[in-house]
Each structure stands twice: as C-alpha cells, then as structure tokens.
Amino acid sequence: MIVKLKKTNGCYRDLTFGQPYVVIGIEADELRLLNDAGRPFLYPPDLFSLIDPKEPVDWITELGKDGERYSYPAALNKSGFFEDFFDEKAKAVAIFWRVVNQRLAGSAESRVAHAGPS
C-alpha cells in the first residue's frame, strides 16, 4: 500500500506533501510508515490519498475489541514489538529493518514495472 500526503499540514512537519510513502502496517486504524526522518510512526489515514491500495499478502489482520484494525507482516505482528524497537532492542531493530528494506525494495520494483519502459 502506498499513500501520499493530501496537503501540507503544520502538525505533521515530518511528512512532505506529494511524497509517496509505503505503509508498513496498520495499528488501531492508523497507518504506520517511515516519515521523512526515517522513523516508523503512526498517522491518521485521512491525511493521505491512496496511490496504490494493494496490501501485501503477508500481512496478518486482526480486529480489536472495538473493531479497530491491526495489520502487519508476521515478523512485526507481535505484542510489544514497536516498544522494543523504540527501546532500541537489537533483535527488534534488526527484524524491523530487514522486513522494511525487503518491502521498500519490492515497492520500488513494483513502481518501475508499472511505469513501463522509458
């Protein structure tokens, strides 16, 4: 899934208008993506328009008690994973960057394939 910021928003200075962002997960209906500082933060989905709505087939989706959605690749779909990541626990950091680098490489290849030959 790829999104872009709909308009410049002073509350979210870590995002750039028009920049495509690869969604790496959904948590309580918010989108987790790498911001301009390379940090995997959560953002409200209404800030973005969809460029590519296709979600990765390896995402595990669960619904919370109030119907909120949680979707992540299996390796990132563990309770407390992002707490460990932000606490800079080596295992979580290594897993995160391995998964995200694979996802970003796949998204780049997909965009090139859709663009066709120059």
How would you briefly describe this protein structure?
With 118 residues, this protein is α+β, with helices and mostly antiparallel strands. It is built from two helices and seven strands.
Write structural notes for this entry.
With about 120 residues, the chain is α+β, with helices and mostly antiparallel strands. The protein has two helices and seven strands. The chain has helices at about 80-85, 90-115, and strands at about 1-5, 20-25, 30-35, 40-45, 50, 60-65, 70-75. Strands 1, 2, 3, 4, 5, 6 and 7 form a seven-stranded antiparallel sheet that branches. A hairpin with a 5-residue loop joins strand 3 (about 30-35) and strand 4 (about 40-45). The chain is globular, with a radius of gyration of 15 Å. Mean pLDDT is about 90; it is low at about 110-115.
Structure characteristics:
7-stranded antiparallel beta sheet, 31% strand, 27% helix, alpha+beta, 7 strands, globular, 118 residues
Q: How is the secondary structure organized here?
A:
Layout: E1 2-5, E2 20-27, E3 30-34, E4 40-43, E5 48-52, E6 59-63, E7 69-73, H1 81-86, H2 90-115
Antiparallel strand pairs: 1-2, 1-5, 2-3, 2-7, 3-4, 6-7
Mass-distribution shape: globular
Distance between the termini: 24 Å
Number of strands: 7
**Low-confidence region ranges:** 111-116
Q: What's the rounded overall pLDDT mean?
A: 88
Measured on Cα atoms, how large is the radius of gyration? Answer: 15 Å
Which bin fits the share of residues in helices? 25-40%
The structural class is: alpha+beta
In sequence order, what are the helices and strands, one letter per element? EEEEEEEHH
Strand content: 25-35%
Main sheet?
A: 7 strands, antiparallel
The number of helices is: 2
